[in-house]
Specification:
Layout lengths: L3 E5 L3 H7 L4 E4 L7 E7 L8 H10 L3 H5 L5 E13 L10 H14 L6 H12 L5 E16 L11 H6 L5
Parallel strand pairs: 1-3
Antiparallel strand pairs: 2-5, 3-4, 4-5
Helix pairs in contact: 4-5
C-alpha cells in the first residue's frame, strides 16, 4: 500500500507537523496505521475566537499564520490509533478519557506529553463533532516543503512527489 496524504487547512497542518496537535477529528477510519504525509491545503478559513486565543497562548499571531505555506506537503506523522467518538455502549467519550488515551498511546510510542500539552489537545477535539479521532505520533517537518496539489480525504500522492519526500517515511 502506498503512503497516503491528508490535506489540512492552516494553521492545523502546521500544528500537526510541529507536534502541537496530536489529534484530528475526521469522518472516517483510516485505512491503515503508519506514515501519513501532511499537505497544507490551499483554502483557508477565518480564524475563530478559540483559535485566536490558542495562538496567543502559544505566542503566535494571525499574521504569522497567514504566512504559512499553502498547497505544499509540509511534513509527516504516524497514525498510531483511532478513537471512536461514541463508545460501543452509546456513550460519548469525554475530554479526560480522550486525553488519557492520547497520553497512553503516545507513551507506548516513546513520546510523553506534559500536562499542559495534553490540555492543549482538548482544544482540538472539544469543539468538533466527528465520528473518529486519529492520534498522531512522530511529527516531522520537511526542511523544504514540496509544492503539490491536494485532494479531499486521504489521497495517494504521485510517485514523483513520494520520491521528494522519502526522507520523512
Amino acid at each position: 500500500m502506498k503512503v497516503k496524504c491528508l490535506s489540512v487547512k492552516q494553521p492545523d497542518a502546521h500544528w500537526i507537523v510541529t507536534g502541537a496537535k496530536r489529534i484530528i477529528g475526521l469522518e472516517e477510519n483510516p485505512p491503515y496505521r503508519g506514515p501519513l504525509l501532511i499537505h497544507s491545503s490551499f483554502s483557508s478559513e477565518e480564524l475563530s475566537d478559540t483559535t485566536l486565543e490558542f495562538l496567543r497562548e502559544r505566542g503566535e499571531s494571525a499574521a504569522e499564520i497567514s504566512r504559512l505555506p499553502r498547497s505544499y506537503i509540509i511534513g509527516a506523522v504516524d497514525i498510531v490509533d483511532v478513537i471512536p467518538k461514541v463508545r460501543e455502549d452509546g456513550r460519548v467519550r469525554g475530554p479526560s478519557e480522550i486525553s488519557d488515551r492520547i497520553a497512553k498511546v503516545l507513551l507506548e510510542h516513546g513520546e510523553e506529553l506534559t500536562d499542559e500539552e495534553l490540555l492543549d489537545q482538548g482544544y482540538f477535539f472539544c469543539d468538533h463533532w466527528m465520528p473518529t479521532y486519529w492520534i498522531f505520533a512522530k511529527p516531522r517537518q520537511l526542511a523544504q516543503p514540496v509544492r503539490c496539489r491536494g485532494a479531499l480525504d486521504p489521497w495517494t500522492p504521485p510517485d514523483s512527489i513520494l520520491n521528494e519526500v522519502s526522507e520523512l517515511l
